[in-house]
Amino acid sequence: MSMNRLRFLFRRFLRRRDLESELKEELAFHIDLETAFRVRDGQSTQVARREAMRQFGNIGLVAEVTRRQWGFTWLEQFIHDLRIGIRALRRTPGFALVGILVMALVSELT
Questions:
Q1: Domain extent for 94
Q2: Are 48 and 65 in the same domain?
Q3: Contact 34, 52 (CB under 8 A)
Q4: Structure pTM?
Q5: What is the pLDDT of residues 9-38, one digit of tens each?
Q6: I want to staple 38 with a disulfide (CB 3.0 to 4.6 A). Which of 26, 43, 55, 89 is the partner?
Q7: How high is the pLDDT of residue 15?
Q8: One domain for residues 4 and 49
Q9: First to last CA, the chain
Q10: What's the total number of domains in the chain?
């Protein structure tokens, strides 16, 4: 992965809230547009909205696929795992120390 690509992903990661709000607006826009077309064709507003939602499909799934396309789910997963690891270290530092020492010894032996 090139350095420019990493910088681009990092900037996008920092703008995550902006991207999330843009995504919500975009999804709402498409549903509202389809609803307006159906109302113009003679459907009631409620029926048009329901049919537009049905045609659009699972909004949560569409949003999740879009988030994956942004390209930093691996970074979010790493940060999540890091937080869990730090929390575990705080709770049981003795156990964590023994685990770290064992891993260090194993890596020295190999």
A1: 72-110
A2: yes
A3: yes
A4: 0.56
A5: 676 767 777 888 888 999 999 999 999 999
A6: 43
A7: 75
A8: yes
A9: 30
A10: 2
